[in-house]
Amino acid sequence: MNKVTVCRKAHFNAAHRLYRKDWNDAQNEAIFDKCSNPYFHGHNYELIVSVTGEIDAETGYVMDMKVLKDLIKLHIEDAFDHKNLNEQVPEFSTLIPTAENISVVIWEKLRPHISSEKDLSITLYETPRNYVKFSGPN
Ligand code: NI
What we know:
Elements: E1 3-16, H1 25-32, E2 41-54, H2 65-80, E3 83-84, H3 85-88, H4 99-110, E4 119-125, E5 131-134
Parallel strand pairs: 1-3
Antiparallel strand pairs: 1-2, 2-4, 4-5
């Protein structure tokens, strides 16, 4: 059977601060640079959610894109958009909200809602030039 990847783009704005509570400001700035700013700062995150699977013989779909759109809206955009990730999103109360960790959290939030025969992959742009990908634990 032919496996096809369908992709849905989405977007959210969010603030964060990258720092470790057990490090002082100088250590945090040395590692996280401007992203350790104690007053937080924002990014325009661009998200691409990719689902790979066989084409359904009846519908011709891998996945109904309206369903995927609604899942992203409910579980990601409503949870992250215009939020301070450190302060307002429980997953980041003890997890540093790097693009890497955000991509894993997004994958974990969506995975239970997508049929297990399909593969799920997350691409997350933190800036137009910096992006990460996560396709699940190996
Ligand atoms: Ni940042």
